[in-house]
Amino acid sequence: MVTTNDEIEIIKKELRKKLPQYPAILLIGNTGVGKSTLGNWLLGHHGDNGPFETKASFDSVTLEPQTALIEINDCKYNLIDTPGLFDLKDDSKSEIALTKLANTINHCSYGIQTIIFVVKKSFGKEIDRRIQEIKGFLGEKSLDHMLIAFTHCNMDQTMDRKIMKDTFTPKMKDFLNRIDNRWIISPNPDLFNLDDDIVYTNIYEAKDIIGSFPEAYTTEMFNRVRRAREDAEKEARQHAQEERMRCFEEELAKISGAVNSAGRIRAKKEAQDACFSLDTVVTLKDGRKIEMSDVKIGDHVACGVYNNAGNKELRYSEVYLIAHLDKHQQTEFLKVEYIKPDGMTGSLYLTSEHHVFIDNAFDYARNIRPHTSQIHVLENGESISVKVTNVSKETRKGYIAIFTRVGTIIANDVFCSCYSNCPPYQNTIHYILSPIRFITLFRKSNYYGNEIHPYLKFLYNNYQYFSGAFKYKLC
Q: What is the tens place of the pLDDT at every residue in 149-189?
């Protein structure tokens, strides 16, 4: 799940309507920690009964920023209850929350008077990591405007500040000293009423701290931090790309060292190996199942399973190349048989040098051992591991090799590589093929020949340049 441009524009329009021209007070923190409850206390309402919606669970009620006008010491502020940050269960939700918070900050044109970081009383163990994340997002200067509000405290901890202090970890004490001990307790709404003295004491202290900051944290400060963060991320991506290239060159060096004096002849022979039997079944994106011999360039076929918000879903990838195809040649295949937990049996015909996912790694099909080796098969939309029951040889008419953009394919419900002769270099070979993947984005391949594809011949003809990489490439 991502925040789309349309969603961002809607957020911006809503914020422009909601935010009068006053400095802001931001409530930030984890999902379900009690930001909305504290907001209601600050606004003079009971924590569970105010303009900010609350819920007694860890599900995020605040999906969009909630705002209200608050007056402290004759000064007006926009109190903004933000979506939960740093959601430990779902990184995508954290990304969305940060995007919304960034848009909120950029609409606080009169600055941010106070950032109230709302945390549970047991938060001390992860304080360093969370503060680093806040500094990375808001900048070091944001700590000069920060107030910590502890929630989920018991009766004794709320009534006696010293008892609460005794629960602080050394790291929490160090951090609170660093921000001049600006902290309060947000009373538990299940234990206290609005007219209780301790509620008044903590909320009065919070307002006193809010009013004491001499100047607001400005959007210009935030955008300066954001630009620095984006530059750092760009540099990190560039470094990662350079590191990938370095690893790729190391892999090529390893491959080069493995090539013997007969490598050139061997590479050509292996390049002409077959792959799958023509009647191997694949699943199209529209749910239809067809034989590989009927697959066309541009079809999207099932290539794996991924987790989408807790649901297992098939992943599909475009077929960009028919590496080679022959409908008449007699070819020797391995018949790999297996049985699913429900008792249903299945089989897959592929050549011995082809790559299949065996025992959690890609390996030659010839290394499959009946009753010992496990392969991954599709069962009710999920990938499960099953034991191979038998492996035999069978001669069949025709063969086909098709490449998807991700380099994998589900064939007869079995998770396979599109390549052969490459263990353990699946990623390296996939990288070597990136030029043709790029070219076919703009110019669709129409090759359906029984010889290997011209680009693959090019790899063979430039065998010395690629230092043996072709040997480990494909079928």
A: 999 999 999 999 999 999 998 888 988 999 999 999 999 99
SS3 420: strand
| Residues whose CB falls within 8 Å of the CB of residue 473, separated by 6 or more in sequence, listed in order | 271, 419, 421, 422, 429, 432, 433, 456, 459
Report the number of distinct structural domains present in the chain. Answer: 2
pLDDT, tens digit (0-9, with 9 covering 90-100), for 412-456: 999 999 887 655 567 777 777 777 788 778 777 665 555 555 555
Task: Name residues whose C-beta falls within 8 Å of residue 125's C-beta, 6 or more positions apart in sequence.
Answer: 169, 171
Rounded-to-integer distance, Cα 274 and Cα 475, Å: 6
Same domain, 264 and 213: no
Q: Assess if residue 249 is contained within a domain.
A: no
Residues 342, 286, single domain; the answer is yes
Q: Range of 211's domain? A: 5-217
Window from 48-62, 81-95, 169-183, 204-218 with minimum mean pLDDT: 81-95
Residue entry with tokens 């790559």: 355
Q: 54 and 38 in contact (C-beta within 8 Å)? A: no
The DSSP code for 281 is E
Q: Is this structure's pTM higher than 0.70?
A: no
CATH code at position 374? 2.170.16.10
Asked if 204 and 283 sit in the same domain, the reply is no
Residues 338 and 193 in one domain: no
Amino acid at 11: I
Query: What dihedral do alpha carbons 211, 216, 217, 221 form, nearest 10°?
Result: -170
Assess if residue 180 is contained within a domain.
yes
